[in-house]
Amino acid sequence: MTEESSTKELIREAAVDLFAAKGFKGASVRDIARRVGIKESSLYNHYKGKAAILESILEYQLEGINRAMLSREEMDAFAAGESDPVKLWLRGVAFYSSRLPRLTGKINRIIHNEMYLDEKCRRFFVDHILERQIDLTVILLGDLVDRGMIRECPLVQTAERYVFMLHGLAQISTIYEIDLKRDGDIQNRIVEHMASFIEGLT
Amino acid sequence: MTEESSTKELIREAAVDLFAAKGFKGASVRDIARRVGIKESSLYNHYKGKAAILESILEYQLEGINRAMLSREEMDAFAAGESDPVKLWLRGVAFYSSRLPRLTGKINRIIHNEMYLDEKCRRFFVDHILERQIDLTVILLGDLVDRGMIRECPLVQTAERYVFMLHGLAQISTIYEIDLKRDGDIQNRIVEHMASFIEGLT
DNA sequence: GTCTATAATCTGATAGAC
DNA sequence: GTCTATCAGATTATAGAC
């Protein structure tokens, strides 16, 4: 249940690496098979074709996100002992992030990469990343308002602005990850941006 | 000077369309040549290869951005007759946008698309889009503060948040452009977000 | 500057033996 | 489920006639 490590699993993992690094078009079935240590023809015993591997990756990602999602009870329990909205927010984000599978970041990069070219990736991005994050943020901000921890504000617009900000930060984070240079303290900057965003709502 | 329409120009224009629609890898030299109405081999009389076409597109984009840029004098003249920071901001954005070449949006999409795969596109995005927009926004916000039109705030952090927000909005704008469905009033939403962002700084 | 012809390579995918 | 062998087509790019 934790980590199968079957050939099918290994293929998917290799494909995640290669799709993220070279793009869906740029990574060939040969590349993927070579990395797994099998021949191309063997790969077709596990997946119908190249497109099917990408679909499998998307399904895997959806499961991972769904499993990491905090339940209503968990969220309430989380909020119980904390009176500082900024600390509460940051702790919540850190906890959620820690529950995401290892490959989540790389797969998000693939989705982001193919979003404009592949309809399934585009759908996934809109439905399971963008809108879901906005919906969740609306709920969380609403809770903070109800608890009197931040002032009233237009929830949807504020949530959109927050999610877009995070999205931009994630993007440059990925870019600095690729080039390594001038990475500086990008992770700290993300946290600072999140903190000052919530701070600005108090 | 205005629009050459030479074969070289036509090739670049066709390439912009195809790279934006199918990606750099997905659009073949054959595709580009066919759209122009010449044979592939003829294309190599104008560009050294496929990569050279993309480079030419980036150079074209850089020129367009540089030409559209408002000078210090233009910015001051713009600010002279307006006392409402929101109106001033929106008018400035609209004016700058109106000076951008026709292909700018499509080329930005290409850059965004290849950003993670191609180093030149990644460099262009960081240097000429992201950092430039942030630098400009810092200046503009600083001006507004100096004029007493908005309150003091951490300029860089605020500018980053603004640029990232716009970036996210541009992204979903592109997505809705592709799928057409549920486009709604995305352009209005962008303007609303810009307005409420500046409004929140007063 | 355009064309025809062609090279050399890579692509995703299949057939069939073991 | 793995392998060898192979296919049919697309890819970028070049050579050389006009």
Short structural summary:
With 202 residues, chain A is mainly alpha-helical.
Keywords:
elongated; mainly alpha; homodimer; Tetracycline Repressor, domain 2; DNA-binding; 202 residues
Any chance you could write out the topology, listing elements then pairs?
2 copies of one chain form a homodimer.
Chain A: H1 7-26, H2 29-36, H3 40-43, H4 50-68, H5 72-80, H6 85-98, H7 104-114, H8 119-146, H9 155-179, H10 186-199
Helix pairs in contact in A: 1-2, 1-4, 1-7, 4-7, 6-10, 7-8, 8-9, 9-10
The first copy, chain A, binds a DNA duplex (18 and 18 nucleotides) through residues 7, 28-30, 38-42, 44-46, 49-50.
Q: Rg of chain A to the nearest angstrom?
A: 19 Å
Distance between the first and last residues' Cα of chain A? 43 Å
Strand content of chain A: under 5%
Count every beta strand of chain A, where a strand is a DSSP E run of 2 or more residues: 0
Q: What is the assembly state of the chains in this entry? A: homodimer
Shape label of chain A: elongated
Low-pLDDT segments of chain A:
none
What is the CATH fold-level name of chain A? Tetracycline Repressor, domain 2
Q: Tell me the major beta sheet of chain A.
A: none
Biggest interface and residues each: A-B, 37 and 36 residues
Q: According to CATH, what is the class of chain A?
A: Mainly Alpha
Order of helices and strands of chain A: HHHHHHHHHH
Look at the structure and give the mean pLDDT of chain A: 95
Instruction: Label the structural class of chain A.
Output: mainly alpha
Question: CATH H level of chain A: which superfamily?
Answer: Tetracycline Repressor, domain 2
At CATH level 2, the architecture of chain A is Orthogonal Bundle
The helix content of chain A, as a percent range, equals: over 70%
